[in-house]
């Protein structure tokens, strides 16, 4: 049985116990969440991973994406990115290579990492068609399902699969048009294939077969957001909503069959539309876990898009999003370096915590601890509570004041020290 089937039968598995302990909730809370499709625990029978729960009532989790490109195929650097992501505190990885030996790269990442690893099988199927047959439109749909199973056997825990792109979705896109075009690689591949071959998306048409594969290998189905906006002016448009509605219906089918599901969206979106998008997703999907891509709340800050996404992610998390896909400073510009991967994870972790302070008040205990540590000028305690202790310590040590109790921002005129002489808190 899958973990969904166990949960529906009232069984509490070891995975549920681990997640319940780490989240500070009851084991039955986790079981009921999985049975209802509100919580997932990405799993695989092929390797041991650091388990994390994603969904309602749990801390917002952060994913870091890595992977080669057609221009840069440096597997050792991608492995270093995986290490840096884990070091920075990412909860999961997505391995999204589009260059090199796909299966070997993913195998090495899965062997090295303790985290759940996600993938997009569609990438490999279309890119191999381009390499071997001269174009992505010559992809054989049977290869798509074969590759999905191959990647599952490597120990892939969750997969982004673009089921919601069908004739109706493409029709909405055609009728409306877009300011920023179609920016999802998976969305572009599948749309091009459908239009050229005049055939329905096989992931949609043969969804039952897809579910069989994922269920057999205990893979969590993350419904890919192929129609996500690539510009703020395209946010919450008809094509994106059409895809969401299709995926919502398919997710209910998958959950009923015993497969865990996550919903993805929405990309670039103005700040004032984030709460609406979260509420809409939660409503139409019967409260499935929501995986926010970005969201980027302005289009004019290349080089700083980790900060742009952190602003959007904090609002998303506060509104009820469950899972955040990090963005690095290199977004829209280049393949990120290991250092940029690390920074991207830290930015997203800060955003997730800011949101959790609203939706899970118990997470404010860390901020209370920091407040007390600062009041007491207890620097070691401040480092231990901080999201990035090493950076905090490094900055202070590089400009150590004459008075080791204070900092060089205030020096001899530290407000806390001045008051401490006359007042005890």
**Proportion of residues in β-strands:** 5-15%
Mean pLDDT, rounded to whole units?
96
Note the main sheet: 8 strands, parallel, barrel
Discrete helix count: 19
Ordered list of secondary-structure elements with their pairings:
Blueprint: H1 3-8, H2 14-23, H3 27-35, E1 39-40, E2 54-55, E3 61-66, H4 75-87, E4 92-95, H5 102-112, E5 116-119, H6 121-133, H7 141-153, E6 158-161, H8 167-176, H9 185-197, H10 202-205, H11 207-216, E7 220-223, H12 238-257, E8 261-268, H13 274-284, E9 290-296, H14 305-319, E10 323-325, H15 338-359, H16 365-375, H17 379-385, H18 389-398, H19 415-420
Parallel strand pairs: 3-4, 3-10, 4-5, 5-6, 6-7, 7-8, 8-9, 9-10
Antiparallel strand pairs: 1-2
Helix pairs in contact: 2-3, 4-5, 4-15, 6-7, 7-11, 8-12, 13-14, 14-15, 16-17, 17-18
Give a verbal description of the structure:
With 425 residues, the protein is of the alpha/beta class. Helices cover 50% and strands 10% of the residues. The chain has helices at 3-8, 14-23, 27-35, 75-87, 102-112, 121-133, 141-153, 167-176, 185-197, 202-205, 207-216, 238-257, 274-284, 305-319, 338-359, 365-375, 379-385, 389-398, 415-420; strands spanning 39-40, 54-55, 61-66, 92-95, 116-119, 158-161, 220-223, 261-268, 290-296, 323-325. The radius of gyration is 23 Å and the shape is globular. The model has no long low-confidence stretch (mean pLDDT 96).
């Amino acid at each position: 049985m899958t973990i969904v089937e166990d949960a529906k039968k009232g069984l509490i598995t070891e995975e549920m116990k681990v997640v319940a302990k780490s989240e500070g909730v009851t084991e039955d809370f986790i079981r009921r969440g999985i049975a209802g499709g509100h919580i997932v625990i990405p799993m695989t029978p092929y390797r041991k991973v650091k388990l994390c729960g994603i969904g309602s009532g749990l801390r917002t989790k952060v994913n870091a994406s890595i992977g080669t490109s057609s221009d840069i195929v440096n597997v050792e650097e991608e492995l270093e990115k995986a290490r840096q992501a884990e070091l920075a505190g990412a909860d999961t990885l997505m391995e999204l290579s589009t260059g090199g030996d796909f299966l070997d790269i993913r195998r090495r990442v899965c062997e090295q990492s303790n985290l759940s690893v996600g993938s997009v099988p569609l990438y490999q199927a279309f890119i191999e068609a381009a390499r071997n047959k001269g174009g992505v439109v010559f992809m054989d749909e049977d290869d798509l399902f074969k590759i999905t199973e191959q990647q599952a056997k490597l120990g892939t825990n969750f997969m982004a699969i673009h089921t919601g792109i069908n004739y109706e979705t493409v029709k909405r896109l055609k009728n409306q048009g877009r300011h920023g075009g179609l920016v999802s690689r998976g969305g572009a591949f599948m749309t091009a294939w459908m239009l050229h071959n005049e055939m329905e998306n096989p992931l949609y048409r043969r969804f039952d077969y897809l579910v069989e594969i994922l269920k057999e290998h205990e893979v969590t189905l993350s419904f890919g957001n192929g129609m996500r906006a690539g510009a703020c002016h395209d946010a919450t448009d008809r094509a994106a909503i059409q895809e969401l509605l299709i995926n919502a219906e398919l997710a209910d089918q998958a959950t009923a069959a015993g497969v865990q599901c996550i919903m993805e969206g929405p990309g670039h979106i103005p700040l004032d539309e984030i709460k609406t998008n979260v509420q809409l997703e939660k409503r139409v999907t019967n409260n499935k876990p929501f995986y926010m891509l970005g969201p980027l709340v302005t289009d004019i800050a290349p080089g700083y898009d980790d900060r742009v996404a952190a602003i959007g992610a904090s609002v998303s998390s506060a509104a009820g999003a469950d899972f955040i896909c990090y963005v690095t400073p290199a977004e829209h510009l280049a393949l990120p370096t290991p250092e940029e991967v690390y920074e991207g994870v830290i930015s997203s972790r800060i955003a997730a915590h800011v949101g959790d302070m609203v939706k899970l008040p118990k997470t404010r205990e860390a901020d209370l601890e920091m407040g007390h540590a600062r009041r007491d000028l207890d620097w070691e305690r401040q480092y231990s509570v901080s999201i990035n202790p090493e950076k905090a310590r490094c900055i202070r040590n590089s400009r150590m004041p004459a008075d080791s109790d204070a900092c060089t921002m205030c020096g001899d005129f530290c407000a806390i020290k001045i008051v401490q002489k006359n007042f005890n808190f």
